Amino acid sequence: MRIGQGYDVHAFGSGDGLILGGVKIPFDRAFVAHSDGDVLVHALIDALLGGLGLGDIGHHFPDTDEQYRGSDSLELLAVVVEMMSVQGYSLGNADLTIVAESPKMAPYLEAMKLKISTVVGCDIGQINIKATTTERLGFTGREEGIACYAAALLMPSGA
Questions:
Q1: Which helix (H) or strand (E) holds 12?
Q2: Spatial separation of the C-alpha atoms in residues 149 and 156, rounded to whole Å
Q3: CA distances from 10 to 54, 143, 153 (A)
Q4: Spatial strand order in the sheet of 2-14
Q5: Residue 3 and residue 10: Cα distance in Å, rounded?
Q6: What is the pTM of this model?
Q7: Given pLDDT bands bounded at 50, 70 and 90, which one contains residue 159?
Q8: Pairing between strand 89-99 and 145-156?
Q9: Residue 141 phi/psi, 5° resolution?
């Protein structure tokens, strides 16, 4: 078994919604990002790559490469899932945390779990997503952006 952890942050800019966990969330702002800015999926990608010992998302999908401009982060996740499979691993479970004052995440968590589990090819129960605030402290508390944490357990395929 192998364990990986990931962390990602994106600032808010002008826009009309966020993509988190592959789900469009109505909001009066959007993420400032090279791709779709899905900070939750980016943290998961980093956790999976970390568990595989393959660096981080910036190494595999650099924001200096125009082919990734506006990319759907779930498609990037699918590439990493294939890397995991090639190395002989599958996901045991993932525990993801969204840190944000707003928007409220509770109405969207199940849809996020479904989208992610579908791409990863696992049971929805293997994905846990929770949301918290920082009680108005720090950049997330000032509503300047969102941070996400991820932990993932990788199991040898067939285990």
A1: strand 2-14
A2: 23
A3: 22, 11, 25
A4: 29-31, 2-14, 145-156, 89-99, 127-132
A5: 24
A6: 0.96
A7: low
A8: antiparallel
A9: -65, -30
Segment 76-125, tens digit of pLDDT: 999 999 999 999 999 999 999 999 999 999 999 999 999 999 999 999 99
Domain containing 32: what range?
A: 2-156
Residue 93 in tokens: 């479970």
Separate counts of helices (H) and strands (E) for the chain: 5, 7
Q: What is d(CA 148, CA 38) in angstroms, rounded to the nearest whole number?
A: 10
Separation of alpha carbons 116 and 9, rounded Å: 19
Residue found by looking up tokens 């108005």 in the block: 136
Cis peptide before 103 (omega within 30 of 0): yes
CATH number (domain holding residue 16): 3.30.1330.50
Q: How many domains does the chain have?
A: 1
